[in-house]
Write a structure and sequence with these properties.
Nucleotidyltransferase, domain 5, six-stranded mixed β-sheet, four-stranded mixed β-sheet
Length: 247
């Protein structure tokens, strides 16, 4: 059997799960905005619930954003920490927005728009169409506004979900013709990442975990200020700037 550990920390509510491609054995939600202190204990607990050890794992699947800059960095740091202790594991990623949309594929009956609140009037958004065994990206994840989404030509989603859809519910409802679904029901789930491992086109293998960076969607505000002050791009890992833009 091929067991995987799954992590998602793209939004306020994180989650950890373990199981096989297409099947969830155990899943835990972690406290809002406390990913740094809760992810590691949640991994230990979910492994106990599933009756597995790290020696049973084949790999890790993690939601790679877009979403919270700090949350994503904590999630990937956690995954890399597990990989450091168990270098035989492989890492797969999938968009967190896809993991949010996947559980609603039967309810929607058509394309699904997943929207996260990106603050400042923006949303992180993507549109997906699912069949029984495949995922198609109709609109790739991007930083935009709900108004701009409603003005797009082409695919019109049959359902909008996520905290961004709930925040701009009137616009989302006029766009899709249906009441949007927000958290806690519509949020990215680590269990969905395990299911997406069995779906064609949904996940990708990370060839070089050491150099991989998630899709933050936009630069952190602290990073923008640092680069404006120093007149150059911040290079993660340099001793002189390490941790200076991580919030």
């Amino acid at each position: 059997m091929s067991f995987y550990l799954a992590l998602d920390s793209a939004t306020d509510v994180g989650s950890v799960a373990v199981g096989e491609p297409g099947r969830v054995l155990a899943e835990i939600l972690v406290s809002e905005r406390r990913h740094a202190t809760t992810l590691a204990p949640a991994i230990q607990q979910v492994m106990r619930l599933a009756g597995l050890t790290h020696a049973d794992l084949k790999g890790i699947v993690i939601g790679d954003g877009p979403g919270s800059f700090t949350g994503l960095r904590i999630g990937f740091a956690t995954a890399k920490g597990v990989l450091f202790q168990h270098p035989e594991l492989v890492i797969h990623t999938a968009p967190s927005l896809m993991a949010c949309a996947w559980p609603f594929r039967l309810l929607a009956g058509g394309p699904i728009a997943a929207l996260y609140d990106a603050l400042r009037g923006d949303v992180f958004a993507a549109i997906y169409r699912f069949s029984e065994d495949a995922a198609v990206t109709c609109l790739a994840p991007r930083l935009t506004t709900v108004t701009q989404l409603t003005e797009l030509e082409g695919v019109v989603p049959s359902l909008a979900l996520g905290d961004g859809a709930a925040l701009y519910s009137e616009l989302a409802r006029s766009w899709t013709g249906r009441q949007p679904i927000g958290p806690p029901l519509a949020a990215p789930r680590a269990g969905a990442l395990l299911q997406l491992l069995a779906v064609a086109g949904a996940t990708r293998l990370v060839e070089d975990p050491d150099s991989f960076e998630p899709d933050y969607g936009r630069l952190a505000e602290a990073q923008v200020k640092w680069e404006a002050k120093h007149g150059r791009e911040l290079a993660w890992g340099r001793d002189e700037v390490s941790g200076s833009a991580g919030q």
